[in-house]
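Posted in: Structural Biology > Protein-Ligand Complexes

Title: Requesting predicted complex, L-tyrosinamide in pocket

I'd be grateful if someone could produce the 3D structure tokens for the following input. Sequence and ligand are given below.
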Amino acid sequence: MSDSPDEGDGDTVVVTKTRPKTQKPPMYKVLLLNDDYTPMEFVVVVLEKFFGINHSQAVEIMLTVHKKGMAVVGVFSHEIAETKVAQVMDFSRRHQHPLQCTMEKED
Ligand code: TYC
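-- Reply #1 --
Done. Output follows.
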């Protein structure tokens, strides 16, 4: 019984380093896209209302989108990102603005 080969001699300590193999859930960038028709003030309201961004930061991000074509407005879990995109698209559609918002998996 105690001589069986897989029981060891009782005084050997095996230390295994824990290497986490569970992956962190992927995160998603929410992007706001430029267009020629959505009023600047509307975009600022969207950034304040749905992303909790303060007024001066919202103006800055809106101007970045206006000049560069798009900007990342936040990084969220898949579910939260999906909700933000849906909220922005619905709010824009209801106000008859063509503002586009999309999400993209972070690398
Ligand atoms: N380009 C728009 C304008 O000149 C403003 C704008 C900014 C639109 C950001 C969309 O995501 C956007 N009225």
